[in-house]
Design goal:
The complex is a heterodimer of chains A (319) and B (288).
Chain A lengths: L2 H30 L4 H6 L5 H11 L5 H13 L13 H36 L3 H15 L2 H15 L15 H35 L2 H8 L4 H12 L1 H25 L5 H10 L3 H29 L1 H4 L5
Helix pairs in contact in A: 1-13, 5-6, 5-8, 5-11, 5-13, 6-8, 7-8, 7-11, 8-11, 11-12, 11-13, 12-13
Chain B lengths: L2 H38 L1 H4 L31 H37 L1 H15 L3 H12 L3 H28 L2 H8 L4 H13 L1 H23 L11 H8 L8 H28 L7
Classes of the chains: A mainly alpha (319), B mainly alpha (288).
Amino acid sequence: MSARAQFVGRRLLLAIPVLLAMSAFVFLMIHLVPGDPVRTMLGFRATPANVAKVRQQLGLNHSLFAQYAQWMGGIAHGDLGEDFISHTPVSTLLAQRLPVTVELTVLSMSLAIVIGVPLGVRAAATPGWVRKLTEGFVVAGIAIPDFWLGIMLVLLFAGIMHVLPPSGYVPFLQDPLLNLRYMALPVLTLAFGEAAYILRTTRGAMEQTLSTPFVLFARARGLSERSIVFRHTLRNAAVPIVTVIGIQFGVLLGGAIVIEYLFALPGIGRLIVTAINQRNYTVVQGGVLVVATLFILVTLFTDVIVGLVDPRVQEGQTA
Amino acid sequence: MSATPIAVSVVAPRRFAIDSGRRKTRIGVAILGMLVLIAIFAPLLAPHDPDAIESGRVLRGLGFSHPFGSDALGRDVLSRVIFAFRVSLSVAVGSVVVAFVVGIPLGLVAGYRGGWTDTVIMRPVDMLLALPALLLAIALIAIVGPGSLIALLSISVIYVPILARVIRSSTLVVTSQTFVEGARARGASSRRIAVRHVLPNAIGPTIVQASVLMGFALQIEAALSFLGLGAQPPTPSLGVMLADGRDVLTQAPWVEIFPGLAIAITVLAFNLIGDGLRERLDPRGVTR
């Protein structure tokens, strides 16, 4: 087996205990609710018959270990329980909402990369007014809360200029153009802060790499500045940039919860918030499980990409 | 003669970094000091009662008696921002203090003792880091129920692993130094070495991290309250104000603008302090 395949295999194995621990946390959520979770869930509908029925559905009469085994068995078959209000399977609810969350996060991260990486490279390669401009962008991107920025964008583009809808959603396959119009403000909101972090990391990594002797040597050889910056420096500065993109994806998944709520997007984040307010624990469990799994998989993917970009990481020579 | 350029190349960036770090820290401390004074003396500074509802001044614009205007219930926005800032800042600072008190001993013991102790402490810490921060806070609130105190504790749960990781790393570096070996040779107890010798030398980066985390805690608190999972109305938290103002966004944008600006300025102040301290402690990392 090649060193590269071994590295990927080892990294995949390391993700298993993390996924198991996360699943145990999500499973225990319902058991950590103070008092009787079933009575809390049912509220005024907590008649003895209803309590007994939901307790039976959730398998709360069995031992904790048996419950976990049953729950994990259900997940393996795509069964995450039932929404006790609408009686829809939680897996169906999540399957309906996952595409919205994925579209929002992927578009936002893509936009953040398209803005952050070239601006970071430019700011490092040609210091001056570009650097000063990016300094201001980074400060604003980090300090401004994303949901407040979203509200301000709604005020500007929907309230004053009337060029974009303030909230709502149409599936991409139904009407691609209208879908993008609805997604424009949420994507811009989430991408702004992320682009600031990516820009700052790119600029820092590029500045550090540009000051190394091999760049001096490349200049001495008479290579064009374009070739030095894009072919040699960017490749060597890629590890921290890719790592930060991976880390920021987790932040983005968290931020998506608030942004979906703000723009009334029917994604998993909004589903979780609504379910918390309804004390609908099975839906909360399902939502948290899916978002956390997505995050762990993105982290895994990032680690593998970093290992492939910089072979020293595979051998544990650099962090 | 040949030594001069080398001396300049080493010393100049360091001096630049320290000067720039000092300037950033000063500006950050000045802004934050002013904000903290406003929070402490809120009852004296607020021109009106933040909860006083007046039907005669509903959605009134910026003016002399109401510099930040009034909201949909006729409450004075400036007074509410001042009191809301007090609540939000208390949650932000409280969450980092709790995380500090729990995370520092954990990371210090893990880094100093190493071996099994390290594994037993750090594996659960790593597990917590494997979840998106806001999702973790929301999951904890889902279990216990919404409220300011729960928001504070949820944010601390996010921050304990971060602070424990930072102090563990610097503890590992400090523990390998000769003065610690000297203390051991002198027969000092492990507890004394860890607390009297290692901790004071390892805590610097953690303080930098904590100051940046306080700013983000304010953002998380506002987000949680905005979602209805943090402070509950009528408590004037900045997030609650932003949630209330959404319904009157186009008629009275000032209800949304000022609470958001308060958050942004505070986060900026905490970041300036954090960046400034980092540049002074680690001038090599200045460009990052």
